[in-house]
Design goal:
homodimer, 129 residues, alpha+beta, Ubiquitin-like (UB roll), four-stranded mixed sheet, 8 strands, globular
Amino acid sequence: MTDWLEQISWNGEGLVPVISQDSATGKVLMMAWMNRESLQITVETKRAVFFSRSRQRLWRKGEESGHVQEVEDIRIDCDTDVILLKVIQHGDIACHTGRESCFYKQLQDGNQWVDVDPVIKNPDEIYNK
Amino acid sequence: MTDWLEQISWNGEGLVPVISQDSATGKVLMMAWMNRESLQITVETKRAVFFSRSRQRLWRKGEESGHVQEVEDIRIDCDTDVILLKVIQHGDIACHTGRESCFYKQLQDGNQWVDVDPVIKNPDEIYNK
């Protein structure tokens, strides 16, 4: 039964945008993309697996960093073209810059993006272990 | 000064995905798209204005329903290709179905989408006033 997969409005590239939200804090951690295969694996393993558009391959979130996202809830929106995951973020770091969330640049004074959230761990320590 | 606009990684259609999150509850309300013009107006008016891909025109959120989104914070992610708004959701309804959030369909048993959130107000009452 893959009706639930076919009910999704995949875009022209066979992808759907996916928002990850920390289930404990409510913080929006990141947005990435999934194809059918990555969503199926996500559902089966309860670990977020995305599709990397730049590398054109499956991207098992945390495969290098260990910062996996354990999936607690999967929602789709009214238009069936955006997915929302509620996750437990292992290591409390979702961003490759070593920050909790990827959304750390704030628009200030209506004319500049300013980094406002702290780096929790140096990326060199995350990726060159 | 529109450097901040040019620093955004607009997609091939000149759009960027935008997540709206309720600043009070932390609930993710919806995801839609903006072009340069809609983002500029959003920043100037502090009201969310999207770009409707289906209608190919500006979409002033709440223009018919009155359910405007008052923007308190604007973030962009590490790749500068996704925007996150923290908003005050007027009327407590973001979805055209009359629900608080557009993400009301939950994946259950790994094989079916089930509507789990209540309709707060009948859409007929919202749009045919």
